[in-house]
Write a structure and sequence with these properties.
Radius of gyration of chain D: 31 Å
CATH class of the largest domain in chain C: Alpha Beta
Number of strands of chain D: 14
CATH architecture of the largest domain in chain C: 3-Layer(aba) Sandwich
Largest interface: A-B, 128 and 120 residues
Oligomer: heterotetramer
Strand content of chain C: 5-15%
CATH architecture of the largest domain in chain D: 3-Layer(aba) Sandwich
Distance between the termini of chain D: 15 Å
Largest sheet of chain D: 6 strands, parallel
Strand order of the largest sheet of chain D: 11-10-9-12-13-14
Strand order of the largest sheet of chain C: 5-2-1-6-7-8
Helix content of chain C: 40-55%
Shape of chain C: elongated
Number of domains of chain D: 2
Helix content of chain D: 40-55%
Number of strands of chain C: 8
Chains: A mainly alpha, B mainly alpha, C alpha/beta, D alpha/beta
Number of helices of chain D: 11
CATH class of the largest domain in chain D: Alpha Beta
CATH topology of the largest domain in chain D: Rossmann fold
CATH topology of the largest domain in chain C: Rossmann fold
Structural class of chain D: alpha/beta
Distance between the termini of chain C: 23 Å
Structural class of chain C: alpha/beta
Amino acid sequence: MKRQIPIFLVFVFGVFMVFQYFSPHEASEWIYKFLMDWIYIIGIFAMALGIWSLIHVSYDKIKHKRHDWGYSVVTLAALFTMMFFGITGFNENGEWGFYFMTQEGLTNPMFRNFFNHILVPIETTMFSLLAFFIASAAYRAFRARNVLATMLLVSALIVMLRFNPYFGDTFGFYMNKTAAWLLNVPNMAAKRAILIGIGLGMVGTALKVILGIERGYMGKG
Amino acid sequence: MEFGTFLWTTLGAMLTLAIFSFLYKDNPFYKFAEHLVVGVSAGYWAVILWHNGLVPNLFERLQDGDWYLLWLNSSRPWYLIPALLGVLMWTRFSKKYAWISRWPIAMYIGIATGVAIPLEMANRVNKQLYATMSNIHWSNFFGSGFLDTAAGYSEVIVFIGTIAGLIYFFFSKAHTGTFGVIAKVGIYILMIGFGASFGLTVMARISLFIQRIQFMHEDWALVAFDKTNPNYSGWFPAFFWLVALIVIGYIIKEFIIYLKNKDKPKPEKA
Amino acid sequence: MTNKQDTNIFNRMMSIDRRWVFLLLIVVCVTAYFLPFSVPILVEPEVAVIHEFIDTLPPGSIVFLAIDYDPASLAELHPMTYALLEQCFRRNLRVMCTALHPNGPSMAEAAFLAVADSCRLDKTYNGEFFPAREVVNGVDYCFLGYKPYPALVILGMGTNFRLPFPSDYYGTPLDSIPLMKGVQNYDQTACVVNISGTSGTEYWISYGQGRFNFPLALGVTGVMGAEYYPYLNSGQVFGYMAGMLGAAQYEKLADNPGKAIIAMKVQLYAHFLIIFFIIIGNIGFFMDKFKKNREGR
Amino acid sequence: MRYIFVIFSLVFLTFSAGLAQVDTLGADSTLLNIAPPAPISNLTVYDKANDHGHALILEWKPSPDDAAGKNTVMMYEIYRSESPDGPFENIGSVPSGNSRYDNIGILEKEARDYIPDNTDLYYRVDAVTINPEIRTSSEIFGPVRSYSNWFHRGRVPVLFAVLIFGGLMMYFVSVARKGAELYVRPLAGIAAVDDAIGRATEMGRPILYILGLGTADMISTIASFTILSRVAKQVAEYQTQLIVPCYDPIVMTVAQEVVKSSYLDAGHPDAYNDDMVFYITTNQFAYVAAVNGIMMRELPATNVYMGKFYAESLILAETGAVAGSIQIAGTDEVGQLPFFIVACDYTLIGEELYAASAYLGREPLMLGSLKAQDYAKAAVIILSILGIIAANFGWTAFTNIFKVLD
């Protein structure tokens, strides 16, 4: 029972959605939108599980005084502070209070400050680490070990040199042209081949899931 | 700029430096920034999902109902179904009834896979297949100039490359003989394509770092010494130097540790 | 890593600690950002033609500037606007400007203020001396501001600027603005330059250039670069700048180095550094292999 | 692109019509004296095909004064009524130069743009000059009705593709079930997974499994669950430690379930606890910051990245390399493949990710589906060769069979 009902549900909903795609009728679209709302709402309810997991793991660390437990206090404090600011704020009359059903929390100045001066700088800086990692990855991996690695290396080098002004006009022009060609021709072919492959792989996997052949996601390997 | 805003910017600048310090090694500054951002972002996301997700998508749809009738008298009572399924997810908090949470998950996955089958087939297979059936510009076969993207031969190469790439992905046939040769061409094309897109991305990634330099320079360092600022006071540069001191102090500390350990044999990295 | 004490130079070249790569990259980027040296920039003809066109306009001609971007694409597009505006004012051209993107007006205003500031100084561009001058709103430029529904605004301006914009952004009626005297529609402007980070460019091409046949030049973001390039070949657009590269080229042509050239400087040397490391790694790899082969025999 | 833009402008013009007229063109227009333009001709209105109803399409021949003749037409205004005698309501406008208007209604009855289905409707198009008072109306077209369609004809090729592929799949699975030996060529990345788990055991270090940034409704994440179930089973058998930090709460819930039953199947249910699979945060770079920290502190022997990855792919893979882990990646995100290939030891490219679960399980049923995918690829290759020949000989009848309409 515990395993059959879920498999049956996957089958029923899956098959319905497959055929829904081919019917643009108003009724069919209404059901589609309604089911999409289900997914969305289930996802939001699951957020409670996520937050609980975060709290639980951090609390466990603090309770057992595991290595670096002090930082978990930072996480929990930041989490609760952010949630507190998110549901409190000032309404139009400047009155402070808890606002669950209206969006005063989102305009709470502290909520904005945490977002703009903690979340955004860290996010963008994490992102900018890529400048360094792309350099170290290139240094480490772009060795002409074999034909395949050489091709990867040469085509990356050509594209990286495409706007180099020291080559002079003539050579620079050819470099630029070659780079543009590499990006539009072999890159295009590679993408198309991978996309078709992925498409079939996806449909194959999805069909296996719906037909109950593939049950790994339910923990039945 | 007001002093309060400058303090917040200073915090942003410190956190920026803390993240960059990870490039050297894992350290207390990075750990602090990391744990802070995890908490802040999880809290932010929870709040956003509440205000922009649950309230408009569920509560407002049921709000004309009464709680003691379980909202059954609202104008759209069918929205109680997803709410019920969402609550079923919470059976995971109990060990005994955790298995019930498989039902909403099964529906979730059923809907998702069902939507994906025709959609992915259409977008990734049918449309790409139709795109390969294009007219080759025979009149412009040799193109104009050097490596012309619009020339006929480039289109032929795209076509052959696509076929060869697909052949590379065959699972049930060994890559031997003619088949192996074509598959080899396929993987070569893939690698050239990957190399090109790697090379292209470098510029965008360096730009991200330039933007961080700009932030530290224009939005923070320049502001700290901007005497034309009507709110300027000695505290502005003081906070700049405080951060600078922390950075220099950390560098000196690490350097001393480095000098101490220099002569000791390095521990073998496993 | 396999040999404990294998420390010949080639082996070292192959296994430089990545922290040296990081440190050098920081040093190179920060130095290139702050040091005032210049790098050559390859100028493409589609950018040069815009500069050439504006440079050869008789003084007093009107350049119509359409600013359709917001802070998100400011980094790439502001340098274009700045260089172009400065060139126009130094050449004593007049500028009309619209911002058909809701967040455009603040972008346009910032550009006018900054360039007017810069014009108060004596400067030499491309060896030509330009004395300081005061740029006056209403005489040297006219900022019409924002109106919704770009297609209709662009079409309306083809009949008369006064239809969609009875008054300018600051509320002055167009008829009392000196610049607008005798200016009816696109016929009195020399060209339109659309600097855009949105699909608003489509409107300028199909409703503007397509209907009223004025010379149109585009400045777009790097992401949009490939999308609008075909219009250059079809002749609908006479000049084209895309992304930071295009902006740097224009700054180079105008001899007015700004943020785009700084960014390109950083880009160029960062790329060189990465390529340098790749080459070092490969030299190490090949020499090491060569040496091992010899020893093996 | 152009069409998207045209449709876009049409849609927003629909909303704006009444307003735009007053807002943008109201100034001093009474001063303009223009001769009325010639009307449009050949107005036809028909139901939009393959749709949910509540939508009609208007087409007409532009006024002779549109960009030619007197060149006075600024725009066309569209009017609709439920009776030929009116009253006609202005429902939208398009700039001159257009000869088509898609009158797409809103599905809710209360909305202003609601168009009733199965009801007689009448349309009129006005050619309007710069002075909105000077205009010429066309003849009234009608009655016309809008319908909702039960079947989308433009999607027939997709239906066939799905049915044929599904059929192939069923066939090969049943062949496999009967016990036929199916050959699959070895994949380096797959073999590496087994070795990696052994290596982790020897070193006494954990295995880090990253499900990526996908949500549980993405097929790549579902494929990753299956791979996780195989990996977890082996990990449980070897009694190695497993760390699964998650980006999405539902992904976390499913992953917990997957790992738990894998431990059960391996006969070590007691070795499982819920904190092996935990949630971090649903924010790309905050998640990456935390995973980077885990990598540098726990020093996992092996990092497995399977699923959907975006810009963080290289940050994760490079940090993993610093930590000295063996790294195996697989994603269907084409843009990120180069970075995984460069920074990881083994990479499953695109479709190989979906094949991985079949490979790891080595169950005949799963291998059957690989065979079906191969046949489908062969069909795609043959059809595209036939198609390109047909296209170049102008046999559009053949290529049109494969065209999908939205």
